[in-house]
Design brief:
- The complex is a heterodimer.
- Chain A is an all-beta fold.
- Chain A starts with 8 loop residues before the first strand and ends with a strand.
- In chain A, about 35% of the residues are buried.
- In chain B, a hairpin with a 4-residue loop joins strand 9 and strand 10.
- By secondary structure, chain B is an all-beta fold.
- The chains are: A mainly beta, B mainly beta.
- The interface between A and B is medium-sized, with 24 and 28 residues.
């Protein structure tokens, strides 16, 4: 799997958009970009994933650059409950492939 | 999303005993499940890939005789920590893939404390 690079930590004011960047310059053509988050002492929660096109769901938006070497996860209106470690992972879309976690970005949403 | 459930959520056992953690896919069938462990303030580390009806595949450095994995059905995988020691105390998490893109969903995790 391609490796990813994320900033170790970020702050965001409550109600503002949180934009979490991720670099994956060695991503291959058939690897997807997945985002998960982990709130303290819980299992990781799936947020969103994409291949080439931008994606949006009820939780977040995923913006993938045209060359696919980087992406940004956007939480449009961050709340205190969004405080968590966010992981950007690239992976082949096949049930036999595990997710390999890096260190992620620790997002702190402040009042 | 799909639901993966683990049991127990917390367990305390004595050093030298064995403890079993169950991972169930509640609303889908999972041919493959994955087991992770996580130490405090560290990231998740993949321990093994559990395949239904066959032997698990362990990551380098993970003792297969110590961490026994059984995946006897499409909805249940178990991790047994044998002859547990205090250094085995950790957060153990399982996951399984489902749906388009084979998105992986995680269980709630199981805290193991060996005293």
């Amino acid at each position: 799997d391609a490796k990813t690079t994320q900033p170790p930590s970020m702050d965001c004011a409550e109600g503002r958009a949180a934009n979490l960047p991720c670099n994956h310059s060695t991503i291959s053509g058939n690897e997807y970009v997945y985002w998960y988050r982990q709130i303290h002492s819980q299992g990781p929660q799936y947020i969103i994933h994409g291949l080439k096109n931008n994606e949006t769901n009820e939780m977040a938006s995923l913006i993938i650059t045209e060359d696919r070497k980087s992406s940004t996860l956007i939480l449009p209106h961050a709340t205190l409950r969004d405080t968590a470690v966010y992981y950007c992972i690239v992976r082949l879309s096949n049930s036999g492939y595990a997710l390999n976690f890096g260190k992620g970005t620790s997002l702190l949403v402040t009042p | 999303g799909a639901v993966v459930s683990q049991h127990p959520s917390r367990v305390i056992c004595k050093s030298g005993t064995s403890v079993k953690i169950e991972c169930r896919s509640l609303d889908f069938q999972a041919t493959t499940m994955f087991w992770y462990r996580q130490f405090p303030k560290k990231s998740l580390m993949l321990m093994a890939t559990s395949n239904e009806g066959s032997k698990a595949t362990y990551e380098q450095g993970v003792e297969k005789d110590k961490f026994l994995i059984n995946h006897a059905s499409l909805t249940l995988s178990t991790l047994t920590v044998t002859s547990a020691h205090p250094e085995d105390s950790s957060f153990y998490i399982c996951s399984a893939g489902w749906g388009s893109g084979n998105t992986i969903y995680f269980g709630e995790g199981s805290w193991l404390t060996v005293v």
